[in-house]
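Pilot study result, target chain (215 residues):
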Amino acid sequence: MPKHTLQTLFLSLTLAAGVSLTACNDSAPDAVDEQVTETTETPAEQQETTSAPEADMDGATAIEGTPIQYDVSAWQAQEVTPIAASDLDAIKSAFGKVTSTDENSLDYASNPATKYRFMAADAPYLDIVDSERYLELGWYYANPTDNDKEKAISQDHAKHAYTLARQLMGDEGGQLVADMLNGQIIKNKTIGEQQVELAKCEFYSCMLIFNKATS
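Predicted structure:
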């Protein structure tokens, strides 16, 4: 093959290769642009997802009930007849009619005791626990999310406890129950002639415990 023919062929191949490379370089930016566009859209989708209303872990929204009001001022205006702490029958009568008696119960310190219940088994409880060392008054402490019936029963229980505390300890006893209903915890305090071992309302339960040994 003549030398000038080889040169012509080599030049043609070189030009063809250059055109192919140029075509590849021209098409690359479009592919990159498309990929960048798809990537930048992802955060926007995530942002729309996180802007949804807040909810609990299980998807339920929090429920806030109506706080319970205790009409302590009205209770305080009522006259009461003093009761001796040793008069168990009078103390039980102040709570109403005993619906059941459990002579194999335990007191605050796990000592043998007798429990007197003043409500049906399926109703918010109102109890007296009596042992050699302690006298305990206990009642259901309603939560703001309870229904109206449960709240009304809880208020009535608190009224009974408030009245009995006044009968046992005077007006200071009534104030003690009022403080309990407001979330205060009282320990080892002498009120009148009674030694209060513990008085508190929390976790659906109120307890007022007298220490007989030091009274």
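One observation from the pilot: The chain has five helices and seven strands. A full batch analysis is planned for the follow-on phase.
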